[in-house]
Amino acid sequence: MSSKPTSTETGGERPVLTTRQGHPVRDNQALRSVGERGPATLENYQFIEKITHFDRERIPERVVHARGTGAHGYFEAYGTIGSEPASKYTCARVLNETGVQTPVFVRFSSVIGSKDSPETARDPRGFAVKLKTLDGNWDLVGNNLKIFFIRDAIKFPDMIHAFKPDPVTNRQEPWRFYDFVSNSPEALHMVTWVKSPWGIPANYREMEGSGVNTYKLVNDQGVAHLVKFHWQPKQGVRNLTAAQAAEIQAHDTGHATKDLYEAIERGDYPEWEFAVQVMSDDDHPELDFDPLDDTKRWPEDQFPLLPVGRMVLNRNPDNVFAETEQSAFGTGVLVDGIDFSDDKMLQGRTLSYSDTQRYRVGPNYLQLPVNAPQEGARARTNQRDGQMAYAVDDGGTNKHINYEPSSLGGLQEAPKPAREYRQWVEGHLGRYQTSRTLDDYRQAGERWRTFEEWERDELVKNLGDDLRQCPEVIALRMVWHFWHCDETYGRRVAEAAGIDLEKARALQPLPGKPAPKQHRAVPAYTDGTPEGTARQSEPATAK
Asked: Membrane-crossing residues (predicted)?
């Protein structure tokens, strides 16, 4: 049985949340940004203090994504995005030039568990790709699912704390997970995915990948489009039920690592098609969700998956520690033609990911061969020294000069492009939460209706088992949420959890949250299958 909090732990006057400097935190839900959809600012002290401390909470393994495996391979561009030349959307050579095999290193992982946790865990899977292009590295760091639990990076430490083991019992307690989720309706969509069979991929070869965040593609005329990146496995998609995962875990805690390694060794190289969704770079008020919101999918009937290239993994690492464990990825590692959007998760991750690598591996982690750019794009900086520095950058014509500008040689700036992408930014600086929140319920309900019946049964069983271990106040709120996603969804979860549906329905909306409408709309995906992927029609165990 789980350890539930007692009334003495939950009652009484609650102390005020502060920063580590003792300043009261008056808004712990949103970064400071220029307007509701504008960029975040560097002076987000509360966020920077919070996220940099979070990055340093565990040593030496990764705070998240500790359990993982990796492989080498290559990427080839088709030179087109759908039926259009890729150059219409981007000046990135890696997406424009055909006939070039760009070296890649990919690390697959689970999120919450430690380095030796089982690969059958119900957990999103990390899907991180380092493309060593002719113009330097491009890291595309994402997950197997196309969405995430939260939409503002300031909530990431809270989310992971709630999902990680209880600091007192050292166990992952369901009530902690649902306590956070019940107060964060934006997470309902991701919960619906993760608690279904999609929460346990059969292996790494037969799962999708997604950049999750919204980026921008920029062409040589300085015109930008919003973009989502996706990896579609040519092997098809397979997932496991809880019972199938338990059966595998009974005799193998690393089945997915074994599966990938053995497939590559026997020459059965896994392959993914790289595809994008694009839309114009504006607010899109016609949509009932914000395109920058990572908790939402862009409907594929409106924004189809457009093929861009393919990726093949054909070589296992020679040494797991040197390559897989010391591989380091960051969402800020982009090439010309690919740019940041004002996605608040992306902006927060861009600081956090590289910061945690400097802490975990060291300030010179980019000197390691697995992380260094390819020889044709050799790094040349004026950065020197630091722990474990073993190479000195080529400083140009004068090795004495490690600064810029100089009249005596050294490095110089690259030529500026003929046309640069420039974003107009105007707004009041403050803390904003997205105002388009009705889709927090619509897309979750839509996903419920498009699952196959066996997937719904598995989802309801998993949620019911969890909610029976939660305090009633949390279980009632979760049923209230699910009922607003879909009447049948809420009713079936209530029955599985032993919850009085009428008592749950009588709850008032969360403080500060608008009253949601109950959604029973026509589903956007008629069979629950993402476009362009093969998929099992019934439960299947891993090979």
From this structure: none
pLDDT for position 530: 41
Catalytic (active site) residue 65 = yes
Q: Is 353 annotated as a binding residue?
A: yes
The answer to whether the CB of 163 falls within 8 A of the CB of 171 is no
State the pLDDT at residue 394.
64
* 68-77/32-34 β-pairing: unpaired
Give the separation between CA 61 and CA 55, rounded to whole angstroms.
Answer: 11
Ranges of beta strands (E only) in 169-223 are: 209-210, 215-218
Q: Which of 13-27, 141-155, 189-203, 442-456 has the lowest mean pLDDT?
A: 13-27
Residue 197 has what DSSP assignment?
G
Give residue 437's pLDDT band: very low, low, confident or very high (50, 70, 90).
confident
Which of these is catalytic: 44, 65, 189, 230?
65
Q: Please state the pTM of the whole predicted model.
A: 0.87
Side-chain half-sphere of 28: how many Cα atoms within 13 Å? Answer: 17
Could you tell me the CA-to-CA distances from 317 to 121, 162, 182, 540 in Å, in that order?
24, 34, 42, 29
Q: Which domains occur in the chain, in start order?
A: 27-373 (2.40.180.10), 438-530 (1.20.1370)
- Residue 255 has a pLDDT of 96
Which of 44, 96, 137, 143 is labelled catalytic?
A: 143
**Identity of residue 201:** P
